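Students often ask why inverse folding is considered easier than folding. One informal answer: many sequences map to the same fold, so there is more than one right answer. In these notes we will look at a single instance of the problem. The structure comes first.
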């Protein structure tokens, strides 16, 4: 029996234990327990998935989904004949809304899904004489890295920089920031409100840094993107 997605949904399979490991550069893998002392579901819940069926997403594609998408609300029960092996299996099947699918991997790098783009947060570096002062985070402002506004600093609505914490292809934790944007005039969840050319120039000349958090913020020319 095969699963087929209906309009507006994506059928995926998820290894619910996919985040609970870490692979070192020498290939050794260790168990990494999550969820026991961390209430941040974005860090503890699996977001890596494989497409079984979707309206425009290629079958077999690796995608990143919302950290709440693996709730039983979206789970497909009794897909296979129930057995002790199936019950113990960490792989489960879900039918989730397309708007909870954020990125897909094209074999070389992560690409944003429809109505989403990627970006980096903006940080103002400390220029005083003290050492060890972290750069200051600039709220509701992103350096866009994909789409029609790629290479621009844009102002957004409040709290639009959702950070996806996922298991990278090398078995190590990686992160992406996604926000909503569409060229469709009927799209009613647009989050970009303005382009700031002045801040864009400052990012390009290194006066303002980009990154995911203050500890990894760097001048644009020195920043390495996740793939």
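Output (designed amino acids):
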């Amino acid at each position: 029996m095969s699963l087929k997605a209906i309009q507006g949904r994506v059928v995926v399979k998820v290894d619910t234990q996919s985040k609970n490991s870490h692979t070192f550069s020498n290939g050794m893998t260790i168990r990494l327990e999550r969820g026991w002392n961390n209430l941040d579901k974005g860090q503890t819940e699996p977001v890596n998935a494989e497409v079984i069926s979707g309206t425009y997403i290629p079958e077999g594609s690796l995608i990143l989904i919302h950290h709440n998408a693996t709730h039983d609300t979206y789970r497909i029960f009794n897909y296979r004949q129930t057995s002790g092996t199936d019950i113990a299996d960490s792989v489960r099947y879900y039918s989730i809304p397309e708007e909870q699918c954020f990125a897909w991997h094209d074999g070389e790098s992560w690409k944003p899904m429809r109505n989403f783009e990627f970006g980096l947060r903006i940080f103002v570096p400390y220029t005083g004489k003290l050492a060890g002062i972290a750069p200051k985070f600039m709220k509701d402002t992103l350096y866009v890295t994909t789409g029609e506004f790629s290479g621009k600093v844009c102002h957004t609505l409040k709290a639009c920089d959702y950070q996806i914490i996922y298991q990278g292809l090398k078995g190590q934790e990686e992160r992406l920031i996604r926000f909503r944007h569409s060229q469709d005039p009927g799209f009613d969840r647009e989050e970009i409100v303005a382009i700031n050319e002045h801040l864009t120039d400052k990012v390009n000349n290194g006066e303002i840094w980009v990154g995911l958090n203050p500890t990894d913020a760097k001048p644009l020319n020195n920043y390495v993107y996740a793939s």
